[in-house]
Amino acid sequence: LRSSGDEPEVKEPSPATLARVIAGDRAVQGALLEKHYGFIRRMLFRLVGSSADLEDLQQTVMMQVLKSAHRYKPTASFQTWVGSICVHVARNALRQRANRGEAVSSDEPSFEAALVDADDPHATIAARQQLQCCQLALSSLSTEQRMAFVLRVLDGHSVDEVAAMMGAAKSTTRMRLYWGRKAFARALAAQGVALPSSLQEQAP
Amino acid sequence: VTGHLAPARLARLALEPGGGNRHLSQCTQCQQQLATFRAAIDTMKRASQPPEEAPFAPAKAIAAAVSAVAEAEGSGLDVRAWFQRPTAWVLAAIPVAVLAVAVWWPRAMPADGFRLISGAPLISARSIDVAPNGPAAIIALSDGTRIQGDPGTRFEILTGARVTLAKGRVQLWVTKRPSSPLRVETAEASVRVVGTIFSVSRVDGRHVTQVEVSEGLVEVTGRSLPESRRLGVGESLDVAVAGDEPVVSTSAPAPEPEANQEPVRKEPTRVPTRKRKLDIERVRSRVRAGQFAEARTLLNAERANAQSQSDTAELDIVEAEMLLATGRRDEALAAYLTVSERHRSLRQGEAALFAAVQLSLPNDRARATELLKRSLERYPTGRFHQEATDLLAALKNRSP
What we know:
The complex is a heterodimer. By secondary structure, chain A is mainly alpha-helical. Chain A has helices spanning 15-23, 26-48, 54-67, 78-100, 109-115, 121-139, 143-154, 159-166, 170-191, 197-202. By secondary structure, chain B is α+β, with helices and mostly antiparallel strands. In chain B, β8 and β9 (189-193) form a beta hairpin. Chain B contains 13 helices and 15 strands.
């Protein structure tokens, strides 16, 4: 399920590179961030679900990576460690957004670009409706369930990686995924995604 | 094929890539629905790409992040990084330790200027131990307060006008200082005092503290006391802890504590004795005239203004007379007996006992005899002595 096409393989930074990053070598710091820039951006966008404040969140993550580089321990890959920072920043952003009572809009410009089918306008409309249903289903999940779901289903990370990024035990992560999937499926079914009327009547 | 899979089940199957199902392989409608769910999830995956950026945007963002970190590091102290060094904790602990000692030192050190007047106690840096078989020790504080420790007593004199008693008995002659009243503390109680003579004793092992006041007024607080108690002259209070139940006993009723009031006795305004007697007689005249409501009002007012035990006793007798006048004979008899017991040393007590005799005579001769004997025994030279003797003789002659 890993969306391998999205994420190019990133080479692990050597200890010498990390030492120079910690020492404050700006050129090496820039090169390191450049390697992980796309990953950070994609991951934040998927976790948060909108492009609002994306630049600010990205900047926060990049600064945190440089500041906390001395704390990195090679028990997991460097990318997973960067992912854990993304999860932390995204979690704070989602909580702040929930406190403000904001919802994710389906009018994202990137959504339009992904959904528009020049040959078939009906397909575009259907896709937009499907996306709206999926977003509503996603918003019914708790923050932790949503993040685990996004990291596993959309980002395609393994359960071990999701657990490491979220700073949770594997069993906890499995439970979050299980309940997250269940809640998402129930919410999606409740939306009635293009269900034939005959099936809707027979469904228990 | 009968029936169809639930939509929620189908949605879950859509999330699992290899999710096979026997029903699905046979039911075309469910297959279509599953395909719809898979299409929706694929759409979501497709749409989960961030918006495109301008060509130089990533480089600009990275450069901004790198310089922001460099500026933050050069600008000042990174507190989090600083506290990760072990020496930082040692450096941070030093002012905390200095502050702790500064707070503890004045409390722990003995008061300056105390001297031994008599006795030969063992005086260490903080505590004073009086030998069990030796003489009592008298210590004088710089303000003139004297503390006498009985043999076998152990106590400490601390600054902040505090004396802690571990065991034994201390008697104190306290110099008045309202701004910082002396406090004597034991495990069970704390006694606060402005200027008075009192003693505090504690038996080691029994966990009982006894407070006796010889002069003035003290305020006692303790874990077993629900609220602070004030003790006056001649009063004593035992504060003990027996399991969870507090045991408090007092030799005389303590005055009611008043909020935010210094423990100074309030002297009521004195009213001449002649006027008080006239006031009480006015109540009595209302009773005789049958004006009971007015008599009750006046009686309550007089009770509030009562200035002596004699006044209270006289008013109690008037109340008994009022009960008798209203036909409540038994209650009146009980009231007279109460007065006679409560004020037995006063002439009102003697009069009340004789009134009880007269009330008992018609109906209960045995009781009247018993009360007459009590009266003669208690007041052998009393003003009702002759009358009581004659009545007792008459009762004996009449008895079968």
